[in-house]
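Dear colleague,

As promised, here are the two records you asked about, laid out in our usual form so they can be pasted straight into your sheet.

NAME FIELD: protein one
SEQUENCE, THEN STRUCTURE:
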Amino acid sequence: MRKIFLFFAALTIAVAANAFTLHFNNEGKDFTITSAVDNLDVLEDGGSVAVVFDAENKTINVTFVNATLKSDVNGELLYFKYDESYTDVKVKLIGKNYLIGEGQWTQPIKIDGPVGGGKVFAHLTFEAGAPGSELNISGKSILIQFNYNSKMTFGNLLTVNITSTSENQAVFYGSCGNDDSGELWLYCSLNVKTTGNNQIFMKGGSGPAYLKIDTYGKIRTEGVTVKDNTFVKDDAPYKGDLVYVYSVPIAIGNAGEVNTYVYPDEECKPAGLKSGTITFDMATYVLTLDNVDLDKSIAAMIDDFTIYLKGNNIISNSNSKMDPRISVMGYNFKLAGESDATLTIDGNNVCDGLFPFAGLEIDNFGKLTIKNANNGISGNGGTNAEDVLKLHETPMDIQSANGAIVDFGNIVLLTNYMKWSPAASYNPTTYALEDEEGNILNDVVYSKVTAIDQVVNDKVASGKFIRNGQLYILRDGKTLTVTGQEVK
């Protein structure tokens, strides 16, 4: 009996030692999660922090919505310790979020992975969940620490602002054993402010630590580069302020070429730009084309993305035989612009005009012209609920070889003041815009309905006239309403 008791006691201790921990601290109050139960209001403040478990992928999904974790007590504001059931934490950030360490030993972020190396890593990821997503981190201690076999990733389209007021603590600190490996992946735009004594990245312990940045990231701080997995200046570990900018997932060019990528802090000047300006606003995910004449294709992988037009814009691509002139792999894509702005897309008889992967909304602007295209506007075969084309009052003139508008689940007209010429309707079975006889339309015009002029003199031989705001029909000497009722 005693042996059985000791066995179960040892098993309990082993399980407890390997249990995951997800810990939050705000205003000195601890919120610790050690069991896989969803909690949509962790901080008990109405839902600024939510936690949902994904057992199949061993992932804990955390959402911050304008959340603030602030404390002056010793310990971590956000802490994750892995177990075999949950190795990953993914934090989706919406709005402006803050981790504020007010105490001398308050640490904003810490992760503990498995000890002893191997292929299993604990992984903490921060990613943007909406336009304008920010993570603001400040404190007097080590700000971000990853221990043993662990990774930390700051994702694309996210802005991370870090302020260290420590006299000599590291901003990032990787503490590893002999066989462990700590990795920091920076795919975000990063702004670091320090006292000038804080090393931006360092490793601790005796194991390897890796700083992962790639060619899509640009260090704006003069003289600073990356060497031996740390930021350096004059061959010495760098201590001081740092500005690091990562490109947004928009490429301008052609498949198989070295493309130009868009950075949020500078005007984009790709090859093939004959005139005009191209800029991107990180706070709104808006790419502005201002009187652009571009002989290249635009491809984006962004949700909630808008192309906004100013002036007269032309996109063609004489050297490409495969890329749609504009393709967007993302949800909630919108094409918008100023009231007199125009966009002309030339497929050069080799490709499609517009390809939105998950639907498109064409808002109000001057005019959209698509010519010489294989397909004018092409969806994704109606494969999901979002694969819908929404139209406001932008006039369109589409000329194509195979289909003016095809492969959407449906078209939604958000106005009563536009018409198709020739008369047309969208067939969600054949996934095409068709004429009244069921033929797929290759060429079509979408224009405003012409209003009937006000007629003040009702002495008309035949036809339609308006008197006192009411439409009447004059036929065979009789005055009829639009429903055919004779007016005495």
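NAME FIELD: protein two
SEQUENCE, THEN STRUCTURE:
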Amino acid sequence: MNEQNDNNKIDKAYVAYTFIDEQTSKELGDRTYTLAPNFRLTRPTRCNLIALALKRFFGVQTQDEQILKSINGCVDGVYFYATTIERAVMVGVSRNPIGVSGQVPFDIYEPEEYVARYFNAAEIEQCRQNGFADETTYIIFAKKLAFKHKHSERTFGDLTTMDTTEQAVYTLHKDHCDGRDYYLVATDTAEFVKIDIQSVKPEISKPPR
């Protein structure tokens, strides 16, 4: 994919994401494939993805380790937020503060009780209109986390007071890895771009067996 430096695209928001799939995980020396890859794989992958997204979409190049190891920051007027959701690693980059998050399917044994615990009245009504479908719940929860990430002063306890039905725009993207669905969300309007893991995987030699 070519770098996008033309002026009519420079102010867009982008979300670059990749998956540390089972094959890559084994190539990098993971003895056991689990849903959550270990820290030595996710952090360097996240750092590489931040550097790639800043350079590819906004022409900003940095090798500052402190910046790249952060999950959020601002470099030359470009904001970023990076996160890991199981085996999905994603980073949002924009001229304005941006939040990204995601959700994977999980068992909701008492969906109405779960929704009542974390969602506000407008969101509960949205779930009710959709028959408390699991997918609706995943998406709303991912929206809440993305909103929280955009507004770092908010705490996890604020989730019940956040109203995703009032937030003007979210961008939703759905993808799959090793048989699992991933619901990825960005605040505001953003273009999701899938990055080949080979472009950002860390250079880690296999540990001795």
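A couple of things worth noting about protein two: The chain is about 35% helix and 25% strand. Residues 38 and 153 are 28 Å apart (CA to CA).

Best,
R.
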